[in-house]
Amino acid sequence: MVNIVPRIRQLVDAVLPRGAVRWDVPFVGIENVPRVVVVSEHMNATYFATFHYTLQYLQSQNVLDFAMLSGAGVERALSHCRPDALVEWLVNSTTPQIVIFSRYAAPCAKALLEAFQSHRVPVLYYCDDNLLDLPDTLGSGVIAAHGTEPVRDARRFCLARVDRVLASTGYLATRLRTQFPSQRVTEICYPPYLASLIRKASRKDDRRSDKQVTIGYMGSRGHQGDLEMVVPTIMHILRQFQHVRFETFGTVAMPTSLRCFGEKVAAHSPRRTYGEFLQFQYDLGWDIGLAPLKDNDFNRCRSPIKFVEYTACDIVTVASDMNVYSSVGGCNPGLVVDEHGWGAVLEQLVMDTDFRWACLSRARSICAERYHLPDVSRGLAKAMTLGG
Question: Which of 22, 53, 108, 382 has its CB 3.0 to 4.6 Å from that of 83, i.e. a possible disulfide?
C-alpha cells in the first residue's frame, strides 16, 4: 500500500507554512477517536469552565481528542494566509469531526464558519451570555470589546448558520430560540464542580462568635453595577461588626464608598489561568461570597457559576432571588434573598457559625450531585452529537 502521509504533509505545507499555527491547547494524540477543535475568543474562564476540563475528562476516558485555538492564535495564523487556507490546513492536518466556536467573533468568524462548512465539518456555537443584547450597565470596556456592530454582526451570522447552538442555561436557550426560530438550540449542564482542582489545607473548625469573618465579592468589571446594589448593606455590616472585613477579587473595582474602612477592606487582582483563580480564591479564606444581580433580561440569562465556584472554594453563597440561583436549589432558602433581605441574612451568617457550616455542607452536596464533572462532561458529549 502506498504511504499517503508524505503526500498529505506536502499538501498541508503548500497551504500554510509549518509552525504558522500554534495550538493554545494541542491534541494529546489519542488514535481512533473523534477529534474536536474549539475556537475560543480568548483562553479565558468561559473556555476553561465550559470546555477545557470537561473535554479533558472525556479525553481521559478515550472518548475523544481535542485541541483549542484562541482568537490570538487565529490572528497569528492569518498573518500567513487567508481564512479558507487556514481552515483547509486544519481540516487536512487534524481531520476534526466537529468544531466549536466558543463566543467567537473575531478575527474572521464568518469566513472561518463558511470554510469549515464547505468542508462539511459541523460547527457549533456556544453562548454563556445573551451576547447580542448587552446593556450599557456592563461598562464601556465590555461594550467596546463585545458590543460593537461588527462583533455583534459576526455573532449573529454564526448563530443563525452554525449546525447547532449550545447555551449555558435554559433561560438563555429559550431566548436564543426566539431570536433564531429555525436554529437548533441545546442547553448544556453548566458549570462543572471543580473542587478537586484545589489543593485544600486543613482548616480548624473555629466556631467562636468573635472569629474574624471575611465577606467577599468575586467578579469582572461588567458586574460593577451588581456589586453596587449591596454596598449600603456591606457598609452597615462593617460598622456593626468589628471582626468582619470585606474583599473583592477580579477586575471588579472596590467601591469608592468602602475605601474609608481602611484595613477592613482589600482588593485582589485576577489570576491568569482558571486553575490559579480557583486556588487563589480558596486561599483567600473567605467565609461568605456575595452574588447580587440586578433583575434584568441580560442577567436572567446568566448561569449560577458564582455559586458553584464559591462552593468549590468552601465559601457560603448569598445570592439574589432570581431564576439564576433560585432554580439551582443549592442555596438554603434563606440565602437566596430579595433586595431587602441582604442585611438580615449576612448578620445571621456572621453571628451563627453553625448556620454557616450547615449552609456550606448543603451547598457542597448539591454541587457534587448536580454539577458532577463526569456527568457534565457526558452531557456535553451528548449535546455535541447532531443526530438528536
Answer: 108
Q: What is the pTM of this model?
A: 0.92
Residue 354: which pLDDT band, with cuts at 50, 70 and 90?
Answer: very high
By the 8 A CB rule, do 164 and 185 touch? Answer: yes
Q: Could you tell me whether strands 288-291 and 164-167 are parallel, antiparallel, or unpaired per DSSP bridges?
A: unpaired
Write the CATH number for 327.
3.40.50.2000
Give the tens place of pLDDT for each residue, 201-227. Answer: 866 666 665 689 999 999 999 899 999
Domain that holds residue 52: 5-191+373-384
263 and 225 in a single domain? The answer is yes
d(CA 289, CA 276): 18
Distance CA(278)–CA(197), nearest Å, equals 8
What lies within 8 Å, CB to CB, of 118 at 6+ separation is: 84
For residue 147, which phi and psi values (nearest 5 degrees)?
-105, 5
Same domain, 38 and 112: yes
- Determine which helix (DSSP H) or strand (DSSP E) holds 99, and give its type and residue range: strand 98-102
